Amino acid sequence: AQSVTQLGSHVSVSEGALVLLRCNYSSSVPPYLFWYVQYPNQGLQLLLKYTSAATLVKGINGFEAEFKKSETSFHLTKPSAHMSDAAEYFCAVTRGGGGNKLTFGTGTQLKVEL
Amino acid sequence: DAGVIQSPRHEVTEMGQEVTLRCKPISGHNSLFWYRQTMMRGLELLIYFNNNVPIDDSGMPEDRFSAKMPNASFSTLKIQPSEPRDSAVYFCASSLKVSGKMYNEQFFGPGTRLTVL
């Protein structure tokens, strides 16, 4: 079975500062990993995904994530936070090989302060 | 293009009443997912369909919950009878499952916020 753990349910950064949201995964098979963003009162939107190609994945809105097998991590980063980045971020995993069933982490609420 | 459409966006009902949530997936998509989001349990997959056939309903919490997909463009999630602990945001998502492709992105609807009094 696959699972993800997101460390920190709330993260606060200053505008212009580095954003780092942590995600660790557990999987018995090569995983596919994802980051989704949820803005208030909206559905989830895919930010980026890792599907066993390049380990450094670039997504929308300047976000990127690096797959580190040795650390079983897939942390999300952005060099410079913007007020519009304030949202909830979810890490998710599915098994490789065609699985469509996503397992989500508990989410991290990102707050961006002036 | 229209995304995933869910209705109603908000539903307030009393305990014991039947609740029906509706979803219209993106045209052409062949997989549909129902999720529930609560503060306590986060985002949980309830059930998903491929080509209108339920594939995995292991996340459906109780027999009070049922889901149908009578055709490729419509699905319902029904709770009968509803209880206060069913209060949550229910999301529908759809994707195009392509043979040989390892993963197919899921597109989420805006959700239905259900409150059971």
Name the descriptors.
heterodimer, A: mainly beta, 11 strands, B: 117 residues, mainly beta, seven-stranded mixed β-sheet, four-stranded antiparallel β-sheet, 0% helix
What topology emerges from the helices and strands here?
The complex is a heterodimer of chains A (114) and B (117).
Chain A: E1 3-7, E2 10-14, E3 19-26, E4 31-38, E5 44-50, E6 56-58, E7 64-68, E8 73-78, E9 87-95, E10 103-104, E11 108-113
Parallel strand pairs in A: 2-11
Antiparallel strand pairs in A: 1-3, 3-8, 4-5, 4-9, 6-7, 7-8, 9-10, 9-11
Chain B: E1 5-7, E2 10-13, E3 19-24, E4 31-38, E5 42-50, E6 53-56, E7 65-71, E8 74-79, E9 88-95, E10 107-108, E11 112-116
Parallel strand pairs in B: 2-11
Antiparallel strand pairs in B: 1-3, 3-8, 4-5, 4-9, 5-6, 7-8, 9-10, 9-11
Task: Describe what is shown at a glance.
In chain A, 0% of the residues lie in helices and 56% in strands. Chain A is mainly beta.
Structural notes for this entry:
The complex is a heterodimer of chains A (114) and B (117). By secondary structure, chain A is mostly beta strands. In chain A, 0% of the residues lie in helices and 56% in strands. Chain A has strands spanning 3-7, 10-14, 19-26, 31-38, 44-50, 56-58, 64-68, 73-78, 87-95, 103-104, 108-113. In chain A, the strands form 2 sheets. In chain A, strands 2, 4, 5, 9, 10 and 11 form a 6-stranded mixed sheet that branches. In chain A, strands 1-3-8-7-6 form a 5-stranded antiparallel sheet, with no helix packed on it. In chain A, a hairpin with a 5-residue loop joins strand 4 and strand 5 (44-50). Chain A is globular. With 117 residues, chain B is mainly beta. Chain B has no helices and 11 strands. Chain B has strands spanning 5-7, 10-13, 19-24, 31-38, 42-50, 53-56, 65-71, 74-79, 88-95, 107-108, 112-116. In chain B, strands 2, 4, 5, 6, 9, 10 and 11 form a 7-stranded mixed sheet that branches. In chain B, strands 1-3-8-7 form a 4-stranded antiparallel sheet, with no helix packed on it. In chain B, a hairpin with a 2-residue loop joins strand 5 and strand 6. Chain B is globular and about 45 Å long. The A-B interface holds A 32, 41-46, 49, 51-52, 90, 94, 96-107 and B 4, 31, 33, 42-45, 48, 50, 56, 91, 93, 95, 97, 101-106, 108-111.
